[in-house]
Specification:
single chain, mainly alpha
Amino acid sequence: MELFWCNIYLSSILSFESSRFKNIRASNFFKAMAVKIPRTRKKISWKSRLAWAATGTAILAVIAFLAVSNWRIYKNRQAMADEIGKLQEQIQILEERRETLKAGLSASQGEDFQEEKMREQGYKKPGEEVIAVLQDKASNATNQDGSGSGSFWTDLWEKIKEIKP
């Protein structure tokens, strides 16, 4: 009968603390109890806690520094890309201007262009006479004022304007 009660007691203890003693048989229960020492948490000194806190803070600081640096590099890259686009547009405009200037240069190196410029400055070929047509100063002054002789339609328009009260 004593063995019976011992088995019931052991089975109740084993079912209660089944998580701690899963693989222990009833016969080895007392041996396990004698050998197993409950673990107590080791107190962590303030120096080690301070060291862990400093390490964690340093790691977070490095991560924050890298994130900020990456953001700055990203912004600089965007600014450079915009500037490159603008400069490429300017290059294209300048190349087109260069082509027009080359065409103008090749045209100005021709004999016809040089002869025209020389005649504008008053030079003449041997055996030619220069004839200059001068306008009246009075008619020139009236033309500059906007009145005077013009085309038929402008004269007509001026007369119509004068008729209106």
